[in-house]
Prior knowledge:
- With about 200 residues, the protein is an alpha/beta fold.
- It has one domain (about 5-195): Alpha-Beta Complex (Lambda Exonuclease, Chain A).
- It has helices spanning about 5-10, 20-25, 35-50, 60-80, 115-125, 135-145, 175-195, and strands at about 15, 25-30, 30, 90, 95, 100-105, 105-110, 150-155, 165-170.
- The chain is globular.
Amino acid sequence: MDQRSDEWFAARCGRITASRFKSVLAKTKSGASASRETYKWQIVAERLTGKVAESYTNSAMRWGTEQEAYALAAYEWQTDKTVATAGFIPMGDYAGCSPDGLFGETQGLEIKCPFNSAVHLQTIDSNKMPAEHKPQVQGCMIVTERTSWDFVSFDPRMPQNLKLFVTTVELDLDYVDQLKVSIEQFNDECAELIAKLNPT
């Protein structure tokens, strides 16, 4: 299925997605964060209604979506790899991910096209994937059962030698074990809320 198609949205409905695993992990010293609670109620609502929640988009999100195809082409040209597109890949009946690409038997791809060029340059300077993307990338490896993921940052506004950044992220077994527990706990919390609100 094509990403962002009606079929894709339907497949994601009520499922905890890798792009939101960061929200699942979001906690403060006093407990769950506002983003975690908001996302939990979104999942509960989707499961009860069978309807996907309206998604918010802004200029930065639209920019990322528009540039993704160019980033993929630049990545394939630089690495000489052929990437297969992927729709939504489920994990059980409660979670899943939408990889930006899959290649080989054990590898996948995550593309980011920052609206703010400074973010792209900071990634190049650090020579590593920003920590904020770790839940999504490691989560994609959980769902797809793959062991490495190429992270791409792309900015077409940069000079040619600075347009594309690529780094390979390996599966972190300790981290994904903890992430799995967090996802399952989050799913249990959603199920408990549904049972409380709509007992059968």
